[in-house]
Each structure stands twice: as structure tokens, then as C-alpha cells.
Amino acid sequence: MKAKxxxxxxxxxxxxxxxxxxxxNTLNSSTERSALRRLRSSLGLRAWDWPIKxxxxxxxxxxxxxxxxxxxxxxxxxxRSRVGRMNPRFAVDALANLTLLETFNASRxxxxxxxxxxxxYGLPGLRVLDLRxxxxxxxxxxSLGRLSRLKYLYLxxxxxxxxxxxxxxxxxxxxxxxxxRNFLTGSIPASFSMMSNLxxxxxxxxxxxxxIPAGLGSVSSLKVLNLxxxxxxASIPGExxxxxxxxxxxxxxxxFSGALPVELGGLKSLKGIRIGSNGLEGQLPKGFFSGLAQxxxxxxxxxxxxxRIPGEVWSLPGxxxxxxxxxxxxxxxxxxxxxxxxxQAIFNFSDNMLYGNLNSSIRFFNLTDLSWNYFQGKVSxxxxxxxxxxxxxxxxxxxxxxLADCWLFYSERGLQFDDFEASGPTDPPFPVSASKKNRRxxxxxxxxxxxxxxxIVMAVILVLLxxxxxxxxIPDQRGIADEGVAPDGDGQMVPKEPSELSGLGDVFSYEQLxxxxxxxxxxxxxxxxxxGDLYRGILENGTIVVIKRVDLHSFDRESYTRELEIFGKIxxxxxxxxxxxxxxxxxxxxxxxxxxPNGDLASSFYRATDLEDESxxxxxxxxxxxxxxxxxxxxxxxHHECYPPLVHRDVQVGSILLDDKFxxxxxxxxxxxxxxxxxxxxxxxRLLRKPQILVG
Length: 696
Ligand SMILES: *[C@@H]1O[C@H](CO)[C@@H](O)[C@H](O)[C@H]1NC(C)=O
Ligand SMILES: *[C@@H]1O[C@H](CO)[C@@H](O)[C@H](O)[C@H]1NC(C)=O
Ligand SMILES: *[C@@H]1O[C@H](CO)[C@@H](O)[C@H](O)[C@H]1NC(C)=O
Ligand SMILES: *[C@@H]1O[C@H](CO)[C@@H](O)[C@H](O)[C@H]1NC(C)=O
Ligand SMILES: *[C@@H]1O[C@H](CO)[C@@H](O)[C@H](O)[C@H]1NC(C)=O
Ligand SMILES: *[C@@H]1O[C@H](CO)[C@@H](O)[C@H](O)[C@H]1NC(C)=O
Ligand SMILES: *[C@@H]1O[C@H](CO)[C@@H](O)[C@H](O)[C@H]1NC(C)=O
Ligand SMILES: *[C@@H]1O[C@H](CO)[C@@H](O)[C@H](O)[C@H]1NC(C)=O
Ligand SMILES: *[C@@H]1O[C@H](CO)[C@@H](O)[C@H](O)[C@H]1NC(C)=O
Ligand SMILES: *[C@@H]1O[C@H](CO)[C@@H](O)[C@H](O)[C@H]1NC(C)=O
Ligand SMILES: *[C@@H]1O[C@H](CO)[C@@H](O)[C@H](O)[C@H]1NC(C)=O
Ligand SMILES: *[C@@H]1O[C@H](CO)[C@@H](O)[C@H](O)[C@H]1NC(C)=O
Hints:
13 helices; binds 2-acetamido-2-deoxy-beta-D-glucopyranose; Transferase(Phosphotransferase), domain 1; disordered C terminus; alpha/beta; single chain; six-stranded parallel sheet; 15-stranded mixed sheet; 37 strands
């Protein structure tokens, strides 16, 4: 019984409430009614949406009323009648008669024309003005600064031009200011620093120039700051680091320069930082990310940033995307220290100068782009399923950088490069273990035969002097220096190639060698030597070679012939290996040598060995001793094992070359002469000329 009474009472109350609401929601002001009708006709709205006979407050789409007066109008999503479509204009004068109007939303409703000046003083109660994508043009009237109750101002995606009125800074109730995607010019008014309640400022995709006013850092309520895609310049003010509530910072696609201010590390609420496509340079401040624990998105791509990737990045718990592509970051990837949810994240490290072996656990991550770096070593394609590894220095993967690029990168930084592991097998370097065993014997033999050889040399010289005296005019058949040398006075005659080509390696075609040196391009030129120009090249099998190009018109053909002779005669691991030759052209001869990754003694004495510490370190003493012994072995071979004995004549730091294992490979063989061509005193002085080379 009691329950029934209650139910009836409740029904009665709800009926009364509905009646009151209906009453309130009926437009009872004739001024407003006629204003709405004028608006209806000036905008050309359809009877379907705004039926003329029905009550606007109850039956017109997008109209909201309070106490019988209109408070909100939204024509967003409405369509014009056929007549209305014929001449769409920004014709909303009737709004001025709706004294309680708080919201006008016309987003995506075409209103070609400019915002009338009277908007600023004719709509004093306006709180929301949404004119996104309305095909507006003209300037933003400065009178809008008088809409003191305005909270939301959306004018994005129009064709607005002119400067941003500084009067907008007076809107201190404003929460959202969105002027993005227009044609606005000029600079950001300093007065914006007074908008003390603003939480979104979006000026993106305009033509705004100048700098970011430092005062913007005092708008402490700011949560979203989007200034991307403008023409802003100078450095990013450190004051932005005061925006402790900031969640999104987008400054991409501008012309900011200078370093990333260390103060931004204090944006402790920040979830997204996007500063891609600017001119930022320098290193990321140390510990930059350690205060940014909320970070989810980091985009710093297409800048000129360098230095190392700060280690804290790997432990950001919420990281979803980090894109630092197209910068100059360097260093190696860490092998561990990843925690949080970073394995879900997308890493784009493409187009930097990262290097080292790829045994990092980054391979377990969702998506990783490591292309266009200098990573080396072997990776199994399987464990890197989600990674892009193109254009690195990785072994056995397609689409890698050229050996020359890789080599240059690693050698410029004094780093150890694995050479694609290609150079090893093609020409086994002097075997270290064997040499150790043999070395003792070598010394003994040098001792024994050195003495013997000296006696023999003396004897030979004696004999030589005697024969020279005795047989003037008779062509000398013995000395290698004399073979194939054209008689004096016949400078144009092309020297004959030695008939015995066994020591001269493979035969290459001219095209082949021109191809591997990019037609002997300047970029592959190592130096203009005194016996020919030296070029770097890479054979099809990956071997790096040095190609000497001897133009017989301009180079001493004698030294060229001598060099061929020497290579025909000597076969010893202590000399730079001749891999091949090309004698196709009459006046242009090509010799192909094995490339020596550690350069000559001069360039190897001091080198950066420690990857972390860039300072130069000198060669260790064990290696120096090894080099000294190697050089001695080479000279000993020339002097004592060749017949007739040879003199190098140009022993200096530049002609002692070092292979990948720092084994000596003596070069500059065009200087080698038969000993009898050089006076004995000369030999001694030349040998001792630079004794300091081996003690550094
Ligand atoms: C106006 O809307 C009310 C309900 O809100 C409805 O009962 C009434 O039929 C509508 N009138 C017209 C003319 O559509
Ligand atoms: C309109 O309705 C409101 C509330 O129902 C009332 O206060 C006001 O006096 C009415 N105005 C007119 C002109 O009827
Ligand atoms: C409507 O507003 C305009 C401009 O504010 C004014 O001139 C006109 O008198 C108003 N109409 C009515 C009926 O109040
Ligand atoms: C304006 O209307 C559109 C469409 O109904 C809506 O998405 C948008 O949020 C409205 N604008 C404001 C500021 O409420
Ligand atoms: C900033 O604005 C641009 C263009 O208007 C937009 O593409 C980008 O998503 C915005 N950034 C953020 C973080 O919302
Ligand atoms: C804003 O940051 C600057 C330096 O970046 C500092 O000097 C200033 O005191 C900060 N202002 C406030 C209100 O925190
Ligand atoms: C990276 O640094 C090199 C010099 O180390 C410089 O030549 C190059 O222009 C830099 N690249 C960028 C994108 O800054
Ligand atoms: C990484 O960035 C480069 C350009 O900076 C882009 O071309 C590439 O598609 C990006 N990779 C991924 C996986 O998004
Ligand atoms: C990983 O992400 C989930 C949800 O995204 C979150 O709840 C969890 O705390 C995160 N883990 C760590 C270690 O941050
Ligand atoms: C991997 O990244 C893609 C976006 O590229 C995302 O849709 C997907 O959910 C991620 N997967 C995992 C396991 O995180
Ligand atoms: C990574 O690879 C290099 C060379 O392959 C090796 O020296 C190093 O120990 C490896 N590091 C780890 C953590 O496996
Ligand atoms: C590649 O990503 C998918 C999700 O996108 C994930 O399920 C898979 O484990 C990843 N593969 C590797 C090797 O990490």
C-alpha cells in the first residue's frame, strides 16, 4: 500500500519537473525568435534542421536555451538549402540580438568571409567560439581580445592572414587558443604570457616567424604547446622548462638553432617532445631524460645533434616511440640496461653515425630502424626480424654500405673495423705464430748468413769493379736495374714489360680497374706519388686495393720498370703484395696492390684505441718491436737473400706499411736498386738516416 502511494507521488513529481523543463525550454523572447529566423535565412539552413513553425529551443538542431533564451548555437554538421548553397557568406549579424549566447559552433560549416569586427563587442557573453574549417579569410580581428569570458577559441584550418593580434593576450579566462593551419604571419605576441589559464596553445602550420617569447614560460597552466611547422628561429628559450604541467611540446619543422636547452629536462609531466626538422646542434644535455619519467614519445629527427644517446633513454618506463633519425649521433648501442616497457617501443635510429657490433638486446624490441649507420659484424637476420639494418657495415647482409665508406668511417675515428672479414682469406697475412717460432732461427740465420753475405757482397763488388774496368762498352746482363731500361736519349720509347710475369699477379682489364676506382675519380685518389698516382678501389670480391696509375708521359718510366723487375724477383711476405697489373694501354700502366689497413708507420704511431676515450695513444712497445723486427727482416732479405743483393734506398716511415695485424709490408719498391748501383757509404747512411723511426 505504502509502496503504491510512493510510486504515484514519484510519477507526479517527475511530470511536474518535465513540465517546468518544457516551459523553460520554450523560446519566449520575440526578439530572439526573429533573430533566429534572420539567422536561419542568412545562413540558408534547411527546414529539416530548423523547422520554421516549431519552437527553436525544442525542435531546432543545435540550439540550446536557458530560461527561454538561446545560449548555444551549433550549425556544425548542418547543411544549407539549395538556395542557401548558392551564395554562402559569413552572415551572422542576427547573433548580436541573442544576448545570452555563450557558444557559437560552426566548425566545418562553410562561412566564406572574414570574422566581423563587431564579434568582439557584440557577443559579451561568448565562452566558446568554434570556427574550425569554415573557409574564413582575412585577419583575426583584434576586438576578439575584448571577449573577456572566452574560454575556447578555435580558428584552425582556415585561410586567415595577417599578424596575430596581441590583444588576444588579454583573454585571461582562455583555456584553448587554436590558430593552427592558417596563413598567419608576424611573431608570437609577448602578451601571450598573460594568459594565465591557458592550457592549449596551438599555432602550428602558419608562417609565424621570430622567436618564442621567453614569457611563454610563465604560462604555468600550459599543457599543450604546438608551434610546429612555422618559421620560428633562434634558440629555444630555457624558460619553457618552467612549464611544469606541460604534456605535449611540439616545436618540429621550424628553424630553431643552438642546443636543446638543459632546462627542458625539468618538464616533469611531459609525455611527448617533438623537435624534429630543425637546426638544433650539439649534444643532448647529460641526464636530460632522467627527469622526464612520463615520456612516451621523443622525436628529434632531422637535426644536427651529435654526441652519444643518453643512457637514461633505455629505462624510460612509458616509452613508445623514439625517433632520432637523421642526426649525427654516434657511439655504440648498450647491450643491456633496458627496463620498463621499452621492448614495446619503436626505435628509429636511422641515418646517424652509430657503430660497433650489434649484439645489443635492442633486437628484441617491437620495431627498430637502424639503417644508414655504421654497425659492423655479423648478425643473424632471424633475431633481427623486426629491424631494418640496411646501409650499415654488416657482414653477409644485402644492401650494405661500400667497404670504402665503412673503412673510412672506422679509420677516421681510429676504431677497429672487421673489414667484412673479407681481406683475411684472400691474402693470409704473415702468420704470427709461425713467425714467432721462426724468428729465433731468422736471427741466427741473419747472423750467420749476414756475415757470409757481407763477405760475398764485398767479393761481388770487387769482381764488379774488375769487370767494369775490363769490359767497357759491353752491355751488362746481370744487374736487374739494367734489364729493359731503354738506352739514354730515347725518352719516348715505351719500356718493355718483363717477359716473366709470374711475380706480377693477376691480369686485370682496364675497364675493370677504371670501374672499381669510379673512373679514377678524385674522391678515390690517395695521393700523387713520385712514381705514379695512387687510387683506392674495391674489387668485386670485396678486397680493398690500391691502384697505381703510371702515365708514362709524365712519370719516370725507369722507376716503373724497376718496380716491375723487383716484383718479378722478390717473393717475400715482408713486402707489399702486388695483386695484379694491367698493361693494356701503351702509355698508361696500372699496378694493383693489396691495401694496407693500418697505413704507414707515420700514421700508425699514434692512434685512438679506446672507444670511450678519444685521446690518442701511442703504439705499444710489443707492436713497435714487432715492426722493428719486421722491417729488419725485409731489409735483411733484400741485402742478403736476393741475388744480386738489393738496396731499398727509401727506408722511411712512409714506406714501412702495416697490414691489419701490424705486420710490416715494405712499400716504395720503385726505389729499390741493385746494390752495386749505390755506393756503399750511401747504403749505410740511408739505412741509418731515420733510426728514430722505430723508437718513435
Ligand atoms: C518538437 O519536439 C517535441 C519533443 O521535443 C515533439 O514532441 C514535437 O512533436 C516536436 N514538434 C515538431 C513540430 O516537430
Ligand atoms: C520567458 O520565460 C522565463 C522563464 O520561464 C520568464 O522568467 C520570462 O519572464 C519570460 N519572458 C517573457 C517575455 O515571457
Ligand atoms: C538586433 O540587434 C541590432 C544590432 O545590435 C539592433 O540594431 C536591433 O535593434 C536589434 N533588434 C531587436 C529587435 O532588438
Ligand atoms: C563543435 O561541434 C563539433 C561537431 O558537433 C564538435 O565536434 C566540436 O567539439 C564542437 N566544438 C566545441 C568547442 O565544443
Ligand atoms: C601539432 O600540429 C601539427 C599540425 O597542425 C600536427 O600535425 C601535430 O600532430 C600537432 N602535434 C601534437 C603533439 O598534437
Ligand atoms: C623560469 O626559468 C628561468 C630560467 O629558465 C628562471 O630564471 C625563472 O626563475 C623561472 N621562473 C619561474 C616563475 O619559475
Ligand atoms: C655530421 O658531422 C659531419 C662531420 O663529422 C658533418 O660533415 C655533417 O655535415 C654532419 N651532418 C649533419 C646532419 O649535421
Ligand atoms: C625512420 O626515419 C626515417 C627518416 O628520418 C624514415 O625514412 C624511416 O621510414 C623511419 N623508419 C621507421 C621504421 O619509421
Ligand atoms: C608497463 O606498461 C603498463 C601499461 O602500459 C604499466 O601498467 C606498467 O606499469 C609498465 N611497466 C613498467 C615497468 O613501467
Ligand atoms: C608494435 O608496434 C606497432 C606499431 O608499429 C603496434 O601496433 C603494435 O601493437 C606493437 N606491438 C607490440 C607487441 O608492442
Ligand atoms: C659483442 O660482440 C663483440 C664482438 O663480436 C664482443 O667482443 C663482445 O663481447 C660482445 N658483447 C656481448 C655483451 O656479447
Ligand atoms: C616483432 O614484433 C612482433 C609484434 O609486432 C612481436 O610479436 C615479435 O615478437 C617481434 N619479433 C622479435 C624478434 O622481437
